[in-house]
Specification:
about 170 residues; alpha/beta; Dihydrofolate Reductase, subunit A; 8-stranded mixed beta sheet; 4 helices; 10 strands; binds NADP nicotinamide-adenine-dinucleotide phosphate
Length: about 170
Amino acid sequence: MIISLIVAASENNAIGKDNKLLWYLPNDMKFFKNTTWAMPVIMGRKTFESLAGEPLPGRYNIVVTRNHIDLSGRSNAELAFSPEDALLKAKEKDCKEVFIAGGQQIYNAYLPVATKIYITRVHAVLEGDAFFPAIDEKEWKKVYELDFPADEKHAYAYSFQTWVRI
Ligand SMILES: NC(=O)c1ccc[n+]([C@@H]2O[C@H](COP(=O)([O-])OP(=O)(O)OC[C@H]3O[C@@H](n4cnc5c(N)ncnc54)[C@H](OP(=O)(O)O)[C@@H]3O)[C@@H](O)[C@H]2O)c1
């Protein structure tokens, strides 16, 4: 199973502030949805709460926490009590890829075992309180990039990039 991180980060690697995203970029939301659709996604408890406590539809949501969260009635979500436990639960789904969907703590936990990163690089330097780890170009190679300018729906220019572990 490929372990992929999927993230949108500013030039200075900011990903969020006050448990919210720093932008509204509809094309990035579409990219996230298309890429992760029907696949297992692993996220931290705080990121899950930032989704108003509702699992992402059309995907199997695995929420990592050291506590108990009531997920009753949500057939497409379950808890995991460590990053390793979450990976085992994703493997049970027999999918070719699992997506690590943040936030900061969870990206840090999985970066050492991930082999792919889908990053939407948002071309701005922004203040945040949650950050993506720096991508070490000695360990990772960029294999894909597609650039988009800012427009009336997107306040910042952005690039979809894919990196693979060397
Ligand atoms: N730009 C993006 O692409 C993107 C994507 C996702 C999130 N974000 C942003 O990232 C920020 C949230 O990041 P965050 O780092 O504060 O929170 P987070 O990573 O979403 O969640 C942290 C929580 O995960 C659980 N956790 C972490 N490590 C664990 C471990 N080893 N074992 C068990 N549970 C563990 C803990 O939950 P408990 O406290 O319940 O034990 C911890 O409080 C928000 O601003 C959000 O908007 C941005």
